Amino acid sequence: QVQLVESGGGLVQPGGSLRLSCAVSGIRVSLNTMAWHRQAPGKQRELVARITRGGSTDYADSVKGRFAISRDNAKNTVYLQMHSLKPEDTAVYYCNDLKPGWGQGTQVTVSS
Length: 112
Fold this sequence. Notes:
This protein is mostly beta strands. The chain has no helices and 10 strands. β5 and β6 form a beta hairpin.
């Protein structure tokens, strides 16, 4: 059974940075496509970034150039580095392996 534990969220001012972590157990992040999603209040959950088992990455247009997904195979952890944060990035952020199942998420709030 896959377990996903997201952390690293918080309150940050516009233009700031945060790094989210997702500790994964039950699967190897090096052998699976892993992804970060987010859900803002009143909106559907959206895919933000993903990294394939081969290391290729892609991003939603809204975060391209500002966010970077990476993984540490030894720690079996996936990261989302976020720069130049905007108020519209405010959401609960989740990671998963693109299969059904979610962790508790981590709240990111961008506000002055």
